[in-house]
């Protein structure tokens, strides 16, 4: 007996069409949560998260991905006004087309973009939350390690921004205990801490290599205040600006001398083969450092304060202050195509968030980042009315404009 395959074929095609249509509908471009904005100077279209659950809605720090690889979830900070409630987290679920608070407060979280699991520190330990769970609830993974607590009177901070090893079994910590700055690795399963080393000056912004769990990149902070209220500023070491610090177990560490003898806002390349940072001076721009050769090159000749690049290292997004910098100043957000050497601006100038005499404590920098397989750029923009917005910009049109 012969079976007619045509009904099955039509059913398969219909299901495929429905799936494709559904996937297409759940994007920032099609979501009811967003409104379209076109930058007049460049014609670049971005999508602003219009659904509000707080006065301020801003992206995560530029070293932390704010969006999952499948494009379903966007995690972002929410807060009240400048003197309102402290920052917490929220999520935009594009599959359900809804925004909901997460009621998570603590360190800058790490979003595993494949599993959609968030990790963060609170005063009593390390926690996680799975965004895909029908009823997401935070789960405590382990306590703050006793070995770290034994280092001094008070653990003042655990990690500037959380990063995990490739197998997601360990968390790198750049902790501050009293006035000591300690680096090491926390084993999530055992709760034990492996101390790698420490510094007597403020070393923070630690981030483990994305493919090598035995190597981390840290930053010598530009200024910090000790317990006795004395302010310290970064000092050259043997004539070298010591911002860039590679850290390994057993106290192994080395300062990487930056081009122009200046560096800021460093970040690992996705493949872990090197890192990059922003520099000023004659050879200003985004500088790439190759781990294997120790060679440095100017990858993007742009003015940048924070920068990220695509996995193929061909395109960059970055921000830069418009006029004198202060916390809450006016910003611009750019895009650079290294193949064609063309630059354009997602936002040519966004208004200041606060005035110079009243600097913001909410860190209202754009912090642009490539997300979702380099399909989008997420950043924070100032509205000009004392509020912040989350912005999502499709990358494909940017590539077309810079061909």
Verbal overview:
With 403 residues, this protein is mostly beta strands. 7% of the residues lie in helices and 41% in strands. The protein has helices at 6-25, 146-149, 396-401, and strands spanning 34-38, 45-49, 56-58, 73-79, 88-93, 98-101, 110-112, 117-122, 125-130, 139-142, 155-157, 163-164, 170-177, 180-187, 193-199, 203-208, 216-220, 223-225, 231-233, 244-247, 253-255, 264-268, 274-279, 285-290, 296-300, 306-309, 315-321, 331-337, 342-350, 369-371, 376-382, 388-394. The strands form 8 sheets. The protein has a 5-stranded antiparallel β-sheet with strand order 1-2-32-31-30. Strand 28 (331-337) and strand 29 (342-350) form a beta hairpin. The longest helix is centred in the first third of the chain and has 20 residues, at 6-25. The relative contact order is 0.12.
Going by helix content, strand content and strand pairing, the class is mainly beta
Largest beta-sheet details: 5 strands, antiparallel
Q: How many E-type strands?
A: 32
Number of H- or I-type helical stretches: 3
The end-to-end span amounts to 58 Å
Coarse morphology: globular
Averaged pLDDT: 93
Which sequence of strands runs across the widest sheet? 1-2-32-31-30
Tell me the radius of gyration. Answer: 22 Å
> Ranges with pLDDT <50 over ≥5 residues?
1-23
| Strand coverage percent | 35-45%
**Which percent bin holds the helix content?**
under 10%
């Amino acid at each position: 007996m012969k079976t007619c395959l045509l009904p099955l074929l039509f059913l398969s095609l219909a299901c495929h069409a429905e799936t494709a249509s559904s996937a297409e509908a759940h994007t920032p471009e099609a979501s009811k949560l967003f409104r379209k904005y076109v930058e007049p100077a460049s014609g670049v279209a971005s999508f602003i998260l219009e659904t509000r659950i707080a006065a301020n809605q801003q992206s995560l720090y530029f070293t932390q991905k704010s969006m999952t690889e499948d494009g379903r979830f966007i995690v972002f900070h929410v807060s009240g006004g400048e003197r309102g409630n402290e920052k917490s987290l929220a999520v935009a679920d594009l599959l359900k087309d809804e925004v909901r608070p997460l009621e998570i407060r603590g360190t800058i979280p790490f979003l595993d973009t494949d599993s959609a699991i968030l990790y963060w520190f609170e005063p009593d330990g390390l926690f996680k939350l799975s965004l895909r769970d029908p009823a997401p609830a935070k789960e405590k993974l382990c306590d703050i390690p006793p070995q770290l607590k034994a280092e001094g009177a008070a653990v003042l901070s655990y990690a500037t921004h959380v990063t995990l090893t490739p197998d997601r079994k360990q968390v790198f910590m750049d902790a501050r205990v009293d006035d000591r700055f300690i680096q090491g690795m926390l084993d999530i399963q055992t709760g034990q801490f492996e101390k790698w080393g420490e510094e007597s000056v403020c070393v923070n912004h630690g981030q483990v290599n994305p493919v090598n769990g035995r190597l981390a990149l840290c930053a010598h902070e530009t200024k910090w205040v000790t317990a006795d209220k004395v302010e310290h500023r970064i000092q050259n070491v043997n004539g070298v600006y010591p911002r860039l610090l590679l850290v390994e177990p057993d106290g192994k560490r080395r300062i990487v001398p930056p081009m122009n003898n200046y560096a800021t806002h460093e970040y690992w390349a996705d493949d872990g083969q090197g890192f990059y940072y922003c520099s000023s001076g004659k050879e200003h721009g985004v500088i790439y450092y190759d781990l294997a050769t120790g060679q440095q090159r100017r990858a993007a000749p742009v003015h940048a304060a924070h920068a990220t690049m695509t996995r193929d290292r061909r395109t960059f997004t970055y921000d830069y202050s418009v006029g004198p910098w202060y916390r809450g100043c006016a910003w611009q957000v750019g895009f650079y195509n290294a193949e064609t050497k063309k630059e354009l601006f997602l936002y040519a100038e966004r208004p200041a968030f606060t005035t110079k005499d009243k600097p913001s404590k909410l860190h209202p920098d754009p912090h642009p980042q490539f997300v979702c397989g380099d399909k989008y750029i997420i950043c924070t923009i100032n509205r000009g009315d004392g509020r912040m917005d989350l912005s999502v910009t499709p990358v494909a049109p940017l590539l077309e404009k810079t061909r």
